[in-house]
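Recap quiz, item 2
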Amino acid sequence: MANPLDKIKPQVRGLKAYTLRPDRGAVKLNQNENPWGAPEAVRRETLRRLEGRAWSRYPDFVPASLHERLARFAGWRADGVVAGNGSNELIQATLMVTVGEGKRVLISEPTFALYRQVATVLGGEVLSIPLDHELDFDVSALREAIERERPDVTILCSPNNPTGCQIKEDALEELLNVTSGIVVIDEAYFEFSGRTVAPLLERHANLAVFRTFSKAMALAGLRVGYLLAAPELAREVSKAVLPYNLNLFSQTAAEVAVELYDAELRPTVERIVAERERLYKELQNIEGLAPVRSHANFMVVHSSIEPRRVYDELLERFGVLIRDVSGYPMLKNYFRVSVGTPEENDRLLEGLRDIFDGKGTKNL
Ligand code: PMP
């Protein structure tokens, strides 16, 4: 009998699926979410606006009112905004309209695994430049790769998941100027960095910026992301986005979150940034650990104990769930922690001190 799997593209058969271990812990520091949750005011106002809206009717074909609010929030134009079902959808849509057999996608690794995954599924060739020894972007290597390989698309995550490094505006501009391709900057974590490359959109029609409501905006469960680009480019990407991709509920909540950002969400971002700096200092004081400076709401930590064991012990003995990133290129001896509330971070530190003082690792 014919094997139906023979019909799957060979490059897809060769991939490992992007998955997450289903473990649960009382202290959840594995997915870089906002630990404070969606503010009560955002939830209440969303539900109020939803009253009287017909569930039997389609949502807006183009969520224009959300696009307008996002444009104002980002300092960009509404016809250059595309909202999506999570920024993942927009990553996929952008690659769908650019990548196929014979196309090249340049990335810098370690980074968010989805870029390689989607580009490969679509038949593209992925070119990867490692981060430098300090886990920072190697701009001159990226520039050389662009000049040599002429990638159709370059994707950089800034701040980068999982390392937290950030591309400087002048370095990015250098890359934008030498490439004939499209450059995507994934700014999923920009709120924690205090910087954005969005002002460069004005001068660079080949730049696309992705953002999400899943991190600082505290709406990961509702799946909203957005893209900022020149209107001509945004229009092309829209062609690969499904109609009514954004449901009524999520669209409404996203509008409320943007409206209430300064009053309700920005203070949580500031608290997270302060906690990130505290966590960084405290981790430096634990022998066997070396945290890496980050511009996001997480950081990777070099560990003298195998990351898998740290993960298991933290979860089993302290109920703390972290991310084992030791399978990523360059990160064999690292784990990643998201920044939680002060109490959650204290619990993490307590667990790590115990484990690295030798008490918890006697039998390992
Ligand atoms: N980009 C990066 C860098 C991420 O880390 C994530 C989530 N882990 C996403 C995009 C996906 O975000 P969303 O929930 O908006 O699909």
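The domain at 4-37+263-356 is CATH 3.90.1150.10 (Aspartate Aminotransferase, domain 1).
Residues 86-88, 112, 157, 161, 186, 188, 212, 214, 220, 225 surround 4'-deoxy-4'-aminopyridoxal-5'-phosphate (CB under 6 Å).
End of item.
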